[in-house]
Amino acid sequence: MEKIVIIGSGPAGYTAAVYAARANLKPLIISGNTIGGLLTQTSEVENFPGFPAGINGYELTMKMQEQAEKFGARLEIAVVEKLELSNGGVQKITLDNGSVIETQALIIATGATPRWLGLESEERLKNCGVSACATCDGAFFEDMKVVVAGGGDSAMEEALFLTKFASEVIVVHRRNELRASKIMADRAMANEKIRFVWNSQIVEILGDSEVSGIKVRNNADNSESVIECQGVFVALGHVPATGLVKDQIELDESGFIKLQGGTSLTNLAGVFAAGDCADPRYRQAITAAGAGCRAAIDAERYLG
After folding, report:
1. What is the pLDDT of residues 268-278, one digit of tens each?
2. Residues 169, 166: Cα–Cα separation, whole Å
């Protein structure tokens, strides 16, 4: 029987492991599909405190892993296939290798993934001008022309943020009106740096080793045109990795785990959540790390 198990090895999972290990709880981390989480796919992280020159995302997560293991955390490279959760009882975890782990406390830090366009060129040019996070990467596009794909509140937030850096922000939306709330739509449409391409969708991102433009198709007449740009920000929302706990703990309408107030507590005693799987708003490495700290402290108090 484990005292505490952490599912997920991103900033939330590793930070929870550091705190739990320093409390002598000997936490077990289940890595998931990607050791280190999505941050490992970020080429340069410039907004994580303590690294004024920036740091490679993979290197940052490996440092987190090293720190957690230094204090006694254990990492198992496996994927969780099934969870059987209880309110205040034993939490049962079945791995893809067939083994079953039981634990007194469970921290879910499974993250979330961006919704992408699904283009081959998009996949090829990720981190080479294609991004899903303006807060993370916007500063790399000083005085450049960038494109934002999407028409909801998150797309307008991305577009408005990018005007701080880019010379022009072009919003490509498949409809002839925005899905965003009126206040967000009005702000974006009033910004002189933002222009809109309506009734259109991106069918290809152009460039060999870096983005040089996009090809868009007009949904009304099927005509195609090319827009030159140096960056493409896909703002179609995020999908939380919460399929394992669906119908077992409370989720919001978008599938993110609901937490009690400013804590990491779910509706089940002994089950905690941290990071992007429970954060529809911020989704930053630093906020995930802070949430991991919170979950470990909550779990320690629960066990005590």
Report:
1. 999 999 999 99
2. 7
| Angle formed at CA 243 by CA 241 and CA 248, multiple of 5 degrees | 120
Catalytic site includes residue 137: yes
Of 137, 153, 279, 298, the catalytic one is: 137
Does residue 41 register a pLDDT over 90?
Answer: no
Catalytic site includes residue 128? no
Choosing from 96, 128, 136, 221, which is the catalytic residue?
136
pLDDT in tens, 63-106: 999 999 999 999 999 999 999 999 999 999 999 999 999 999 99
Quick: pLDDT tens for 229-266: 999 999 998 899 999 999 999 999 999 999 999 999 99
Query: For tokens 């703990």, what's the residue?
Result: 249
Strands (E), the chain: 2-7, 28-30, 74-76, 80-84, 91-95, 100-108, 112-114, 130-131, 145-149, 168-172, 194-197, 200-206, 213-218, 224-228, 231-234, 238-240, 271-273
The catalytic position among 133, 153, 229, 298 is 133
Backbone phi and psi for residue 27, each to the nearest 5 degrees, phi listed first: -70, 150
Q: The tokens 């979330």 sit on which residue? A: 112
Let me know: does 152 contact 235? Beta carbons within 8 Å: yes
Tell me the C-alpha to C-alpha distance, in Å, between residue 210 and each of 118, 123, 129, 166. 18, 12, 6, 17
Q: Which helix (H) or strand (E) element contains residue 185?
A: helix 182-190
Question: Of all residues in the chain, what percent are helix, strand and coil, respectively (each to 5)?
Answer: 30, 30, 45
Assess contact for 89 and 269: CB atoms under 8 A.
no
Contact indicator for 302, 105 with CB cutoff of 8 Å = yes
Please name the helix (run of DSSP H) or strand (run of DSSP E) that holds residue 156, with its range, or none.
helix 153-162
Question: pTM (2 decimals)?
Answer: 0.81
Residues 187 and 156 sit within 8 Å (Cβ to Cβ): yes
What does DSSP assign to residue 254?
T
